[in-house]
Amino acid sequence: MAKKNVSFSEWEERMPKVAPAEIGARLEAAREALGIETQKAFLAPVGMSQQHYSNMLAGTNVPTVYHLAAFSETYRLPMDFIVFGKLEELPYKIHDDVAARLNAANRKNTKKRRSA
Hints:
The chain is mainly α. 66% of the residues lie in helices and 0% in strands.
């Protein structure tokens, strides 16, 4: 049986939404869980500039495919975690710590939106 060709817009509707700021929040939680003190130390091995990372945290940039691969390879962070937030893909030694940090950040952001 032949597969039906899917238009880009149909494909886009089915794909999970990816928010740049959420990618940044996941990477920041992973950095802290890994015990890496500074963003500079976290970014140097993957070749990402501090400006690009700051923009990603602010939600105005996304990581390049090169950077995704570099974060994944360097820190053993699965791309499914980085891009889509699939916590079950994380290595067990940082899983709980990252989950707790992301939950705390989500609660903090929810409080900010309610008070605004």
